């Protein structure tokens, strides 16, 4: 008899999937929040962290309109991790949003400074367009704070042209090791 909890059963897939999660924070102790989040990802059901990028300091950026503009708030710390998960994409998003809430995340307005943002960048080769979830993440290719750490851990996922297109965006790798 299986020892899985009912929640794990309903969220389970047969085959584990490789997925990439972007982490960002610019409120409070952002470095500690990102490291805690990586540990917490390990505690999601059926999920292991396989690779973690370094920590990057980046200027707040608004790319919602398709144009780049400075966004309010302090510099961000950003990173990307590769996970292997048996959760389906919706259950994974539920888990990410729960971790955001646990970090004290509030959403007073769009692009507001935040204690923790966890975005699902890629979920295997899936293309998902639902009211709750767009994968690949629709804005990932406009952002050095996503592409540079993603290329560090998964160079096959980012082309030289994509990196070139965001080269002008300020991003600095911190020398303090992996997230
Ligand atoms: N949602 C849809 N697709 C996804 C996905 N692939 N991953 C929905 C995660 N969520 C996804 O997100 C709003 C809704 O998007 C969710 O309810 C989910 O159902 P949110 O995190 O609640 O709100 P948000 O932060 O305003 O939106 P989002 O999409 O996270 O913001 P962005 O566009 O990612 O921008 N500058 C720097 N330097 N570094 C940053 O990390 N981050 C942002 C946030 C802006 N500027 C930044 C950074
Ligand atoms: Mg988000």
Q: Secondary-structure blueprint of this entry?
A:
Elements: H1 6-11, E1 12-25, H2 30-42, E2 47-52, E3 54-58, E4 61-62, E5 69-70, E6 76-87, H3 89-102, E7 117-123, E8 128-129, E9 134-135, H4 144-153, H5 160-165, E10 171-178
Antiparallel strand pairs: 1-6, 1-7, 2-6, 3-6, 3-10, 4-5, 8-9
Bound molecules: 6-(adenosine tetraphosphate-methyl)-7,8-dihydropterin (A4P) and magnesium ion.
Write up this protein.
By secondary structure, this protein is an alpha+beta fold. It has a single domain, classed as 7,8-Dihydro-6-hydroxymethylpterin-pyrophosphokinase HPPK (Alpha-Beta Plaits), CATH 3.30.70.560. 27% of the residues lie in helices and 34% in strands. The protein has 5 helices and 10 strands, in the order αβαβββββαβββααβ. Strands 1, 2, 3, 6, 7 and 10 form a 6-stranded antiparallel sheet that branches. The protein has a two-stranded antiparallel sheet with strand order 4-5. It starts with 5 loop residues before the first helix and ends with a strand. Residues 1-6 have low confidence and may be disordered. Magnesium ion (MG) binds next to β7.
């Amino acid at each position: 008899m299986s020892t899985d909890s009912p929640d794990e059963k309903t969220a389970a897939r047969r085959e584990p999937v490789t997925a990439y999660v972007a982490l960002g924070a610019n409120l409070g102790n952002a470095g500690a929040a990102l490291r805690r989040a990586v540990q917490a990802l390990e505690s999601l059901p059926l999920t292991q962290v396989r690779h973690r990028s370094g920590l990057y300091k980046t200027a707040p950026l608004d790319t919602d309109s398709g144009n780049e503009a400075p966004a309010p708030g302090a510099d961000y710390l950003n990173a990307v991790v590769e996970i292997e998960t048996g959760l389906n994409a919706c259950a994974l998003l539920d888990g990410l949003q729960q971790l955001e809430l646990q970090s004290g995340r509030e959403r007073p307005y769009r692009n507001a400074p935040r204690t923790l943002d966890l975005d699902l960048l890629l979920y295997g080769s899936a293309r998902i367009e639902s009211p709750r979830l767009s994968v690949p993440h629709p804005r990932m290719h406009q952002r050095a704070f996503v592409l540079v750490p993603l290329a560090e851990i998964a160079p096959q996922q980012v082309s030289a042209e994509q990196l070139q297109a965001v080269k002008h965006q300020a991003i600095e790798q911190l020398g303090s090791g992996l997230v």
